[in-house]
Amino acid sequence: MPKRITLRLIIILSVLCCSAGYGTIIFNNKISSHSSSAVPDRAPKKVDNPVNQVTSGSIIYRLPNSERLTQIALDTTVDMAISGIVNRVKVEQSFTNPSNEWVEGVYVFPLPENSAVDRMTMHIGNRILEGQIKEREEARKIYQAAKDAGKKASLVEQKRPNIFTASVANIPPGESITIAIEYQQSVLVDNDTFSIRFPMAVKDRYVPGEKIATPKDALGTSPNTHRVTDASTVTPPSDPLVDRPIHMTIHLKPGFNTAKVASSYHNIHVTNEGQQNQYINLTNSAQLERDFELVWTAKPNLTPDLAVFTQKKGGHHYLMVMAAPVNKTPSHYPKTPREVIFIIDSSGSMHGSSMDQAKQALAEAIMRLDKGDRFNIIDFDTQFTPLFTEAMPAININKKSGLQFTKSLEADGGTDPLEAIKFAFTSKKIPSQPLLRQIIFLTDGQVSNEHEIIDTVRQYIDQDKFFTIGIGSAPNSYLMTKLADYGRGAFTYIGEVKEVRTKMTELFSKLESPALTDIQLSLPSNVQAEQANDVIPDLYAGETLTAVFKLNTLPSSLEITGKTMDGQYTKTLHLRDASDATGIDVLWARRKIERLMDAYNTLWGEEEKAYAKIPITKLAIDYHLVSKFTSLVATDITPSRPGLEHLATKAVTNKMDLSMFTPRKIAYQVQTATNSSLWMLLGLLLMFIAFIWRKKGRHG
Amino acid sequence: MARSFLLIAGLIIFAYGSYMPIKAQLSQLLIRHAWHESTYSGEYVKPWSWADTYPVMRLQAPSQEEDLIVLAGDTGNVLAFGPGLSRLTPHTNHSSTWLISAHRDTHFEFLQHLKVGDFLMTTNLDMTIQKFQVNDINIIDVTKQDIILDDHHATLKLITCYPFDALVAGGPLRYVVTAEKYQTFLY
């Protein structure tokens, strides 16, 4: 019960019951406060609140010790060296502590999903401490012990294949600690285009499920849930005001004369250093909240359709083969009738330009459907809404309602595609003639339950194909790539509205052309080889096959077999012009771990999981790689924090992505006052006059 | 004759004026009852059968000993009974702005005594308790400025009319208390 109202009611009642004297008190109190001497002690004394004197637009207070001011400053320097198809990257993170207490900084950051993190060093003054690869729990213990002992320490852990956490303990007040994380990745090759991506920020990810117990010291913005049991570790806080600058330099040695070197979304400066050597830097170090992408192409006729790299290390040979076995020429086959199911994400994270891109892409796709095709659209956020209960023929009237449906989509709610995907798989009739069923999933993939989704697609896929279209400034490409792999489809990335048409055309040529399926690679029988990925995803026209082997001796040829519309496909590759490279061993191990992790993720039993964990951990430790089960840890020898000083743990806030959404502005039209005081006063005034009148009448 | 007419007219006008705050207080009892039922059943419960609103959350200001039940919607007929949560900011979205309005002369009278650094608590129907800290108090002219809703940040915006002691309703100024999420308690 608001005190002042209660008091006022009491006064009003006492006015009515007792004397009229109090009426003037209210009068005094309400209208003029200069005659406060007339206020008896029992009446409420109105303290004049300073807020009543301020005019529109001014800010009265701001929190002096706001979290924003005591933020840990973080500066990132990225140094890439691209040599052939291997990209070696060094990410230096400098944690600066502006506060006057000892601080532990915990930073959640993204790396490309195919990155093999194999080195971490901690820089204190002139000293460099090398990080050791340890089993995850052991690494945690070492870090915790050093942290408790007041020693400087750092720990790099993998939370998702594309999300990592760096913890740095005991940063002295006003000082900084730098850690350098190194990883390696293979360059992406698609349709004669070479590219690398570097993610700039972890986006707010949707966490589905019921809340479960979350550690009290968790630093994430979301609690753990029964569907995402580690949600609190992958949802870092974000703030639009923090500055997280990224400086980037790239040394590009593609191994051929380039026709074009360009960044898709950022401004870069390219300097030629010799014929096949370029130096590139990002012109603006302010963190741009979207993935960085560098694309380069070879001069015409220089693109090799086969590239072979070898490395000899520790008594083993490593071999990496890249080939484009399927011709890019459009298919000459009559088109098979298709059933295309679109699943479109209209969750809150799609708000803004992403939704526009998705809508345009979808509209483009609907327009391209043939009369003989069937289609359906499923819109999802927290729930899902299908356009039709099952796919309908792509005749004009249905296409029109499809376009209407697309147009009316609005981005809000959570990102929970699971039920929508299940519906897409299950809402099919047994057709009279065989249809090629393709499911196209348009999303930014800002989910935290990747494995649940991947597992669903793996279970339901059957003969269907699953294609993913990544939308927006920083889609979850780990999720998209994996879904497309399991779904025997392809992943297309659309980063800007102006790319929609070309990318959709590209995708449609893939959808319409038959793929090379059931791909097998075989080596001469005298060679003992261990292939990193024994399952090779289906290849569409122009797509490049990449395979990495660990062998006892180098073979002279390699045979690719598979199935096409024509039947059996066989091609022999002669591995003559192999070039020596470094880092193939790391790529091999990283791919092998990924393959083993895929198998691990399909297991349910605790015992089976524990068993499957062993070879992964061993491989990761042998090759010094960070994985789900292994982390890099570095600790200082001497303690620096005095034992009695408190250590505060702070999540390093990510820069909030403002490109994805504009804060909603609304004109406020709610009437938040009544005239009750006015009416009450008026009533009292009238009664008072009547009272005086009577008094006067008596005297007269 | 004229005197007693004046007295009766005064009484009627006074009663009319006091009807609003009394209604506002009494209805909170029924609303509170509906809220408890709602937290028990997990479903929306109307405080009385013909009501066009239902409780969606509980709002507490410990420093002012305030404990209010927030209703769905912020139209005039809702605000007569209690603070209202704007339909533009659904209570189910925990990581966005919640825009709550109430009358300056009834439920949100306490806003003028809130200070930066004060805590506010909300309890949702699913019994999640969130603690917010006031970090900004602002006065805006609604004819010139918009209210900014951040859809990606747990924020509480409490709005009422300003100045607090204005006699006549309908001015363009609004008193906006913004509080940012401080902590979430889970049960």
From TrEMBL, chain A:
Residues 213-240 are annotated as: Disordered. Residues 339-511 form the VWFA domain. It comes from the Bacteria. Pfam families: VIT, VWA_3. Residues 221-236 have a biased composition (Polar residues). NCBIfam families: marine_srt_targ (TIGR03788). This is Marine proteobacterial sortase target protein. It comes from Methylophilales bacterium HTCC2181. The lineage of its organism: Bacteria, Pseudomonadati, Pseudomonadota, Betaproteobacteria, Nitrosomonadales.
TrEMBL record, chain B:
InterPro entries: Sortase, Sortase_D_1, Sortase_dom-sf, Sortase_proteobact_type. Coiled coil: none annotated. GO terms for molecular function: hydrolase activity. Pfam families: Sortase. It comes from Methylophilales bacterium HTCC2181. Keywords: Hydrolase. This is Sortase (Surface protein transpeptidase)-like.
